[in-house]
Amino acid sequence: MDEENEVTIAICKYIYTNWVSKAKSQRDFASKCDIEESTVRKIKNIALGTAKTEYNMSIKTLAKICRKKEITLEEFFRKINK
C-alpha cells in the first residue's frame, strides 16, 4: 500500500470512528457538515475496508468537516498522526 492510501485510510478511519459512527445518521452528519451523503458513505467504506475504489478527499471537504467539529486542520492532522 502506498503512502497516499495510508493517509486517506487514516483520515477516513478517524472521521468515521470519532464522528460519523456517533452521529444520528450518515444523512444527519452530511447535512450538518454541508457535504454530500455519498461522501460520508465513501468515508465509511474506506474506514471499514469495504471500498472497491479509491477516494481522494478534497481539503475543502475535510475543512468543512473540521469546521463543524470545531477543530483546525492542524489539530486534525496531529490527531491522526499519533
Automatic annotation (TrEMBL):
Q: Which GO terms describe its molecular function?
A: DNA binding
Q: Mind telling me which Gene3D superfamilies this protein's record contains?
A: lambda repressor-like DNA-binding domains
InterPro entries to which the protein is assigned, alphabetical? Lambda_DNA-bd_dom_sf
- Source organism's superkingdom? Bacteria
Q: What is this protein called?
A: Transcriptional regulator
